[in-house]
Structures are given as structure tokens and as C-alpha cells.
Design a protein that fits this description.
By secondary structure, the chain is α/β, with parallel strands linked by helices. The protein contains 15 helices and 24 strands. A nine-stranded mixed sheet has the order 5-4-6-7-3-8-9-10-11, sandwiched between helices. Strand 15, helix 10 and strand 16 form a beta-alpha-beta unit.
Length: 476
């Protein structure tokens, strides 16, 4: 597919799924129910186009004044009133459509597009224009005449409509692309999604992608697993080992954690997962910066825990260590992935502790894609040369039998460490065992482990009855 001149939207995630942006000089429909975000999206694109040196004609079929629209846009960072009437012009054609019909609207747009020197035309109200048309042929003629005039002067067109474009909709066959916004309920939370329904001459990334609206406007988060990175397949794996912060664990692992690998620490609540991660992060240095990416314990609580156990952590925010805490409330799965990878790249992280994968799981409203998401995430972490430890809480708090965290999850990870708790003679006995080290020798025997001065202490091998385990997968 040949490269074509693009009109970037100024929204990086949207440009990604559009394969670089809209095709310059082409026409697109942006559709969605009222409140889905069409007006914000189109104005955000318009003001981004101004920053790129373009000029915008924004045409509406609103009966009320544009001042109400501007008041709503005033709270958004991208909106700049100083540009109104200069680089961007808002024109209402409500009265022209009502009194004179579609032909008069076309003539007005032809005149204004030329007079303003517009390079982007936004037409908000395609549904109203369709309602005024007597036949489908009238709709096609109206769209074609606007497209023709715009293309003649090198102007791109965005048609906004509240209707759902169907295969039989006449305007659907006329435009080069269709972008659909939806706002639905997923359980009790709002779920905003964007989909490229049609993209003529452009290899857009299909499927649903989540977005959010904030003071900055719209931010689109493409599905992580849909962003292919062919370079990953050709990268040489990292070599060597890094210390876990526990000498005894390094011995069980056959000499430390393989550099650039991803290790899952599975265990019940209170089993020592986070403490093991604190040991790992205590080895962070300027040469190997560390990052804690967690959901359950705030930085203050983590430092308090480390101090109570006698684990010395570098100061948060220092070149050695960063603690990043995210609340569990209403997260977007791909936003979390984007934040994590962004922090790793920005800080040059080499030691990463994710506490834990369950925070990502709770953000996923479509759980069947979790394995593909995690596979893509760990591939990128490996490519960045990051040694990663991640936790997953298993359901059994006490017992010798445990269930694997999720079907197929262990297959995409390099190493796995299992923490367990059993009751023996009315006391709680904790154990640690290495279940898997990819392409390496390791000690698979379960060993005693407990909290002690200085953190976790790993002891002798357990009795064989306690060491026996059964790992049965559960549905992810």
C-alpha cells in the first residue's frame, strides 16, 4: 500500500489505529449516539489542525447560538477562543436549510470554503440534512457535491451524525471512512469505545478500542495486542542473571533470575509476594533503575512495610527507584499497559515489579483477551531488556493443593515461583518452590520460608508430603 498524505488528528492513539491519520482530501463520517463524544472529537481534531498550520470551517445545523457550544468547550485544554473567527470559523446553516433546502446549503458551503481558504471542513448535522432530503439520491447528491468542492480546493471533510450508518445508508457508500463512537454500560461503569468501521485506501486497525474524555479532550488507547511490532521477533534475548535480593532464592533459581525474563510469583494473600518484590527492588541502582507498578499498596504503605521488615529501599523518585501506584477504580486495560510501558521507557527501568496482574484483570471488561494482552505486554518488556517480577493472587489461602492463576498464562511467562501456606500442628507453615525456569536448571524442592528480621528467610527443604502439589488450571 502506497504512502498517502495524512491529516493527523493530534490524538496519538487515534492516529495509530488510522494508520497515521485521515487521508488528506478525503471525507469521513464520525457517528455515534448523543453524548458519545463526536463534538469534542471533531473540535479537538480541528484545533490540532490549526496548530499544524491549517484553516478550519466548522458548519453546524444547530438552532441555538454557537456561544453555548463554546461554553462547553471552554473547559477543555485544546480550545482556544483567540482562534475563533481567524483560523477557525463557525457557521450555522440551520436557517438556510430550513428556508431554502439542501441546494442552498451546498452553495453556501462552496462559497465559505473558498472564502475561508479552509483545509478542513467539519459538517455537524448530516442526519438533519438527510431528514430534509426527499430521496436517497438527494442525499448522495448532497454529499457528493460537498466532497467534490472540498476535493477541488484540497480540503478534507468530516461529517458528524447521530445516526448509525448501515450498509444501506446512502452516505455510507459515498465517504472514504467511517469512525464510530459508542458509550455503553459494562456492569455499572461507563465504557467508551471507538471503531473504524470503514477505511478506504488505508490499513486501519479494526476492532474496538477504548477511549476516555478528560480535560485534555479525548485520549484513545489502541488494543495493545493489535499493535504489532515485527522487530520483537528478531531481537536477541538478554543473557546473564540478576540477583533477586535473596541469596537463597538465587540458589534455587540456579544462579539468580534470568536477565530480561518475566517471572510470575503466585501465592495467597499474606504469603510474601509483595515482600519478595521489595527484596528484588532493594537491588535497584543507577545502572539498573527499578519501578514498582502496583494497585494495592500506596508508596507510603510500601515504605512502611519495608522499614518494618528491615528491607532498605532506595528513595522513591530517585534515579534508582520509582513507585507508581494506581487505584483500582474504573481503569482501562490498555491505558494501564500504555502507562506501564511509558514509565519503563521514560525511566530506563531494568528492574520491574508488577503488584499485581490482578489489577489488569479487573480493568478488563472482556476477559478472553487477557492472555493476548499479557503476551503482548511481556514481549515488549523483554524487548526493552527489563527483568520483571509480577504477582498473581491465588484463591486458596491455606492448603497444599493450589490452582494455577489462569489458563495458558504460565505458557507466556519465563519463570514461575509458587508461595503456599499450610497449617501443621496448629501453626502456619509457609513454603516457596520454583515451578519453572525457562531454559535453565533449578531446584524444584519446596523450602520453608518465613518473615524474619531483614525480610524473608528461606530455610530447609520441606517434608515430601508438604512438597507435593497439584496444579489444576482454572478458566481465565
Amino acid at each position: 500500500m502506497h504512502d498517502m498524505s495524512r491529516l493527523t488528528t493530534g490524538i496519538s492513539g487515534l492516529d495509530q489505529i488510522l494508520a497515521g491519520g485521515f487521508i488528506a482530501g478525503a471525507s469521513y463520517i464520525i457517528q455515534g449516539q448523543p453524548g458519545a463524544g463526536k463534538t469534542i472529537l471533531s473540535n479537538q481534531i480541528a484545533f490540532s489542525h490549526l496548530r499544524d498550520g491549517g484553516k478550519v470551517l466548522y458548519v453546524t445545523l444547530l438552532a441555538e447560538s454557537h456561544e453555548r457550544l463554546f461554553q462547553a468547550l471552554d473547559v477543555l485544554d485544546f480550545f482556544d477562543r483567540s482562534k475563533l473567527g481567524n483560523d477557525i470559523t463557525y457557521v450555522s446553516v440551520f436557517q438556510t436549510l430550513r428556508d431554502e433546502g439542501l441546494d442552498a446549503v451546498v452553495k453556501l458551503l462552496r462559497r465559505e470554503t473558498k472564502r475561508q481558504g479552509a483545509t478542513l471542513l467539519v459538517f455537524d448535522g448530516l442526519l438533519n440534512a438527510r431528514d430534509r432530503a426527499e430521496t436517497d439520491f438527494d442525499v448522495k447528491t448532497f454529499v457528493a457535491e460537498i466532497q467534490g468542492q472540498a476535493a477541488f480546493v484540497g480540503c478534507s471533510v468530516l461529517f458528524l451524525t447521530s445516526s448509525s450508518v448501515k450498509e444501506i445508508s446512502p452516505e455510507h457508500t459515498m465517504v472514504d471512512g467511517v469512525v464510530e463512537l459508542t458509550d455503553t454500560l459494562a456492569g455499572v461503569r461507563s465504557l467508551r469505545q471507538i471503531q473504524i468501521r470503514k477505511s478506504r485506501g488505508s490499513k486501519a486497525i479494526g476492532g474496538l478500542h477504548e477511549f476516555e474524555i478528560s480535560d485534555s479532550g479525548i485520549t484513545v488507547y489502541p488494543r495493545l495486542e493489535a499493535l504489532a511490532d515485527p522487530a520483537i521477533a528478531s531481537l536477541e534475548p538478554a543473557t546473564g542473571r540478576v540477583g533477586s535480593g535473596l541469596g537463597e532464592l538465587d540458589t534455587l533459581l540456579g544462579g539468580g533470575i534470568p536477565r530480561g525474563s518475566v517471572t510470575l510469583i503466585a501465592g495467597p494473600t499474606g504469603g510474601g509476594k509483595t515482600t519478595l518484590g521489595l527484596h528484588f527492588l532493594s537491588q535497584s541502582s543507577v545502572e539498573e533503575p527499578g519501578l514498582h507498578f502496583g494497585f494495592f499498596e500506596t508508596p507510603h504503605r510500601l515504605y512502611a512495610k519495608a522499614r518494618s521488615l528491615g528491607i532498605a529501599l532506595p528513595s522513591s523518585g530517585s534515579p534508582e527507584l520509582t513507585l507508581h501506584w494506581t487505584s483500582l477504580s474504573d481503569n482501562i486495560l490498555d491505558k494501564l499497559g500504555d502507562q506501564l510501558l511509558g514509565q519503563v521507557q521514560k525511566l530506563g527501568v531494568k528492574r520491574l515489579f508488577i503488584d499485581g496482574f490482578g489489577g489488569f484483570e479487573r480493568a478488563a471488561h472482556h476477559r478472553p483477551r487477557l492472555i493476548e494482552f499479557f503476551a503482548s505486554l511481556v514481549d515488549r518488556l523483554r524487548a526493552l531488556g527489563v527483568t520483571t517480577l509480577a504477582t498473581w493472587e491465588i484463591r486458596e489461602i491455606v492448603g497444599t493443593d493450589v490452582t494455577a492463576p489462569a489458563r495458558d498464562l504460565s505458557a507466556i511467562l519465563d519463570n514461575m515461583i509458587l508461595l503456599r501456606q499450610v497449617e501443621e500442628d496448629h501453626r502456619l507453615v509457609r513454603s516457596i518452590s520454583v515451578q519453572k525456569v525457562r531454559d535453565g536448571n533449578f531446584d524444584s524442592a519446596a523450602h520453608l520460608i518465613d518473615f524474619a528480621e531483614g525480610g524473608l528467610a528461606i530455610g530447609a527443604s520441606l517434608h515430601h508430603e508438604l512438597a507435593a502439589s497439584s496444579v489444576d488450571p482454572i478458566d481465565g
